[in-house]
Write a structure and sequence with these properties.
The structure holds two protein chains of two kinds. Chain A is mostly helical. Chain A has seven helices and no strands. In chain A, helix 1 packs antiparallel against helix 2. The relative contact order of chain A is 0.16. In chain B, strand 7 and strand 8 form a beta hairpin. The longest helix of chain B has 72 residues. The chains are: A mainly alpha, B alpha+beta.
């Protein structure tokens, strides 16, 4: 079996329940009423891209579209703004998923940054066309924060798959 | 190695479904259609209401920790703050009591006078208290969501105020919640009346929690400190509600219009309870139906083939 160079160990199969629960949790995180911060990283986009890269056969473009619709309704934005952004995000992530996993986590973050920038740019263009409001330059920081969170999310969401296949007293996890 | 260690199902060989490119084209097309439909037609309203109903329990649940932290903070900050508030409230009450005592007599007198000169009685505005569910985290717009919807009688276009002035207007109504666009949103506009000069104009939302008075001539009589109130000519906002104060007047030599910056009276940040008013148009008598146009002669068929 050819193992990607970036992967340090053979992973357990993913638990679909955990996968969808993490997506739901990201949606909840995005919906937390913390106020308006333009530089706020989009957790849902981050987790969606993560699963698109790691499990492209389970979480595809359709799921991204549906989650985008939910975000649109929650924020009262133009219906389809987030859906379009997440669709493109998911497509880019799926097209690069085979290449991405050959790199270490830091290099992955660097390569995933343009994907997040594209997603935010799509949102910005849609809003400029529909209402012409500009939220300020701090919104440029949002994709950077998302890319910086990539190593964290990789560690967190792959942890269940890194467990030992047969646990014993010496290796409880 | 135990069985569950590896995903042993063979990857599907033929049944892969449509390619990623096909899918992205399809979903982008759907998204573009939705955007167009949402801004131009009303066909997406049921979809939006359905999804909002789906999300509502989650939104209410998420508002709970926020309220708890707020309540906890109040509990800790404690007695002194409460007493200070009470003192302030009593001062305000004393200041208002004289006015309030006169209001009753004035109202009675006003009705009598209006009856004398045969004017219609002034409209009474119905109001409904509502609680703010959350503020939309969308950095592109200024919207809040309140916990009263169509089933409680909220209608689109209803003005929303708080204790200090006009806050905004209901723009979308869901069955159990509604969306309020604040006056400081880029797309919001409100007709106002300058209380000093009695000049009518229109205020618009601007960037950065501010508003501006547009289309005022460079030499218009507007001074810093002028109070703007709703004028009541729009059939939506009742007249006499505080809207904003003029904070800066820039006559601008290079343009025929002045740039006038306003500070809204009601602060949108940290508002918890609001009052939803009934649009004035609902109480006014219905417009007379337009007279049916005289039937025109049938146009000659265009471009008939010869």
């Amino acid at each position: 079996m050819i193992m990607p160079r970036g992967a340090d160990q053979l992973l357990l199969p993913v638990n679909p329940l955990f996968l969808w629960f993490s997506l739901f949790l990201a949606l909840v995180l995005n919906m937390l009423p913390v106020g308006r911060v333009a530089a706020m990283p989009d957790f849902l986009a981050l987790v969606l891209v993560f699963w698109n890269v790691h499990q492209p056969r389970r979480v595809g473009i359709g799921a991204a579209f549906v989650f985008g619709l939910l975000m649109d309704v929650h924020q009262g934005a133009v219906l389809g703004q987030h859906a379009e952004a997440y669709t493109l995000l998911s497509f880019l992530a799926i097209t690069m998923h085979r290449r991405l996993l050959w790199f270490g986590v830091a290099e992955q973050a660097l390569q995933i940054l343009p994907v997040f920038i594209v997603a935010h740019a799509v949102s910005l263009v849609v809003r400029l066309l529909s209402s012409g409001s500009f939220p300020g330059w701090t919104m440029l920081l949002a994709p950077v924060f998302e890319a910086l969170l990539w190593p964290v999310i990789s560690w967190l969401l792959l942890a269940p798959q890194r467990r030992a296949p047969d646990r014993d007293a010496n290796r409880p996890l | 190695m135990p069985l569950g260690t590896l995903d042993r199902r063979p990857p599907p060989f033929f049944h892969q479904g449509p390619s990623a490119l096909t899918r992205v084209a399809l979903f982008s097309a759907v998204a573009l259609f939705l955007m167009a439909a949402d801004t131009r037609f009303a066909v997406t309203r049921p979809l939006r209401s359905g999804l909002q109903m789906l999300l509502l329990p989650l939104e209410r649940a998420l508002a709970v920790p926020l309220q708890m932290t707020h309540a906890g903070g109040e509990y800790v900050s404690g007695l002194h703050a409460a007493q200070a508030e009470l003192g302030k409230a009593e001062l305000a009450l004393t200041a208002q009591s004289a006015k309030a005592a006169r209001v009753d007599t004035l109202v009675a007198e006003n009705t009598r006078l209006r009856a004398l000169v045969d004017l219609k009685p002034a409209l009474a505005v119905k109001a409904m208290a509502a609680e703010v569910l959350y503020e939309a985290s969308d950095p592109f717009s200024r919207k809040i969501f309140i916990d009263r919807g169509a089933s409680q009688g909220v209608v689109p276009g209803a003005p929303v105020i708080d204790e200090s002035g006009v806050l905004g207007q209901v723009t979308r109504v869901y069955p159990l919640s509604s969306e309020v666009t604040l006056l400081i949103d880029k797309e919001a506009a409100i007709p106002v009346l300058n209380t000093r000069t009695h000049q009518r104009s229109a205020a618009f939302g601007a960037d950065g929690s501010a508003m501006e008075l547009r289309f005022m001539a460079g030499n218009a009589d507007v001074k810093v400190g002028d109070v703007l109130q709703t004028s009541g000519v729009d059939g939506i906002y009742p007249p006499g509600l505080d809207v904003a104060k003029v904070v800066k007047v820039d006559p601008r030599a290079d343009s025929s219009f002045a740039r006038i910056a306003l500070a809204p009276t009601a602060s949108a940040d940290g508002v918890r309870h609001v009052l939803v008013l009934e649009p004035m148009a609902m109480q006014l008598p219905a417009r007379p139906a337009p007279e049916p146009e005289p039937a025109k002669d049938k146009k000659p068929a265009k471009g008939g083939k010869k």
